Amino acid sequence: MTQRRTDSRNRWRNKVVSFRMSPQEADLLDMFVKISGLSKQDYITSRVLQRRITVNGNPRTYKALKDLLTQVLYELRRLEAVTPDNDELILLTDRINTTLYGFKNN
User: Fold this and answer.
1) If both were cysteines, with which of 34, 54, 58, 70 could 64 make a disulfide (CB 3.0 to 4.6 Å apart)?
2) Side-chain half-sphere of 89: how many Cα atoms within 13 Å?
């Protein structure tokens, strides 16, 4: 017998939704999930249903932000110029900035 998967409101999650992503999109999604501190399932569900994502600061989230900022710094030093071709780096930087700004205001 399989275990029932319920969400925080005790709703049974028995529907599977899948889709394809490029490796670059999957990497970016993984970074956004790390920053959020949510599970990938909860993050994707919240984004798809246009729910607000509230990031609660914890050691894991802070470490993810530090690691991602290190990666961004490395990429910025490597690049001669930031161009629209670097849209993933720009999106990641914007998400990190939004998260840190939210921490500051809470």
Assistant:
1) 34
2) 16
